[in-house]
UniProtKB/TrEMBL annotation:
<dbReference type="InterPro" id="IPR003593">
    <property type="entry name" value="AAA+_ATPase"/>
</dbReference>
<feature type="domain" description="ABC transporter">
    <location>
        <begin position="4"/>
        <end position="234"/>
    </location>
</feature>
<dbReference type="InterPro" id="IPR027417">
    <property type="entry name" value="P-loop_NTPase"/>
</dbReference>
<comment type="similarity">
    <text>Belongs to the ABC transporter superfamily.</text>
</comment>
<dbReference type="InterPro" id="IPR050095">
    <property type="entry name" value="ECF_ABC_transporter_ATP-bd"/>
</dbReference>
<keyword id="KW-0547">Nucleotide-binding</keyword>
<dbReference type="GO" id="GO:0005524">
    <property type="term" value="F:ATP binding"/>
</dbReference>
<dbReference type="Pfam" id="PF00005">
    <property type="entry name" value="ABC_tran"/>
</dbReference>
<dbReference type="InterPro" id="IPR015856">
    <property type="entry name" value="ABC_transpr_CbiO/EcfA_su"/>
</dbReference>
<protein>
    <submittedName>
        <fullName>ABC transporter ATP-binding protein</fullName>
    </submittedName>
</protein>
<keyword id="KW-0813">Transport</keyword>
<keyword id="KW-0067">ATP-binding</keyword>
<dbReference type="InterPro" id="IPR003439">
    <property type="entry name" value="ABC_transporter-like_ATP-bd"/>
</dbReference>
Length: 234
């Protein structure tokens, strides 16, 4: 079981207004121990959800405090953290760097499987297992949004991370594809941390954090978290 700790975390960025530089606080006073297998993060636009998620694999560094993933500090050893934490972006086109699904999965496998022919066969098998085999050599740009997001998930899983962090992974998807992603998430063995505006998806999680204006406004069971969030929205 994975263990993620945020200890006294603040995130601030400089904002420039003419010659003046001010400080904008994106997150403040975040103390969390994340050990549950399925954790959701909900909150209004601009509340700080992506900032929180990006801290977890060292994509951004805390201004104050520390983030530890299975005891590894995200600033001191970001590379080791990123080997453990797979990150799924909202837009799969921000994630998929190769022309076709099979090439992207092969890229993820290159450290684990040295021989090209073996790597290609393994990549194909991973796609096939998700029902994506027939799309293996199709251009990424010819796939639907849902297919791309499933390819992204396969690409991230190919690295065998202990933790999956997904930033609004269903936002661009229609109902059918949202259900496909939801089912894919339900099957994962990894620890899963997902930010979402999809409150049905949020209800799937054991623990849900509500972020409001850069603070954790609620932390607890999903149904209570959703109620809390609805209360903030009125
Ligand atoms: N590098 C940056 N410089 C200045 N402001 C930033 C920076 N990164 C994020 N912000 C601001 O911080 C706030 C929180 O952003 P964040 O992306 O974490 O919100 P979010 O809850 O994920 O929003 P959404 O639901 O719209 O994706 C927003 O007001 C955003 O504009």
């Amino acid at each position: 079981m994975s263990d993620i700790r945020l200890v006294g975390v603040d995130v601030e960025v400089p904002v420039f207004a003419g010659r003046d530089v001010a400080t904008k606080t994106l997150l403040s006073g975040v103390d969390l121990v994340l050990t549950e297998q399925r954790i959701g993060v909900i909150g209004a636009n601009g509340s700080g959800k992506s900032t929180l998620l990006r801290l977890l694999n060292g994509l951004i560094a805390p201004t104050r405090g520390r983030v530890l993933v299975n005891g590894v500090d995200t600033v001191a050893d970001g590379k080791r953290v990123r080997q453990q934490v797979g990150f799924i972006f909202t837009d799969p086109l921000a994630q998929l760097v190769m022309s076709t699904p099979i090439e992207d999965i092969e890229l993820s496998l290159r450290r684990r499987i040295r021989r090209r022919s073996e790597r290609e066969a393994a990549a194909y098998a991973l796609l096939e297992a998700r029902g994506l085999g027939k799309l293996a050599r199709q251009s990424i740009y010819d796939l639907s949004g849902g297919e791309r997001q499933l390819v992204s998930l396969t690409t991230v899983l190919a690295v065998e991370p202990a933790i999956i962090v997904a930033d609004e992974p269903t936002t661009l998807l229609d109902l059918r594809n949202r259900e496909l992603m939801r089912a894919a998430f339900a099957d994962l063995e990894q620890q899963l941390i997902v930010s979402t505006h999809d409150l049905d998806l949020a209800l799937d999680f054991e623990r849900v954090l509500v972020v409001d204006a850069g603070r954790i406004a609620f932390d607890g069971p999903a149904s209570t978290a959703v109620e809390h969030y609805r209360g903030l929205m009125v």
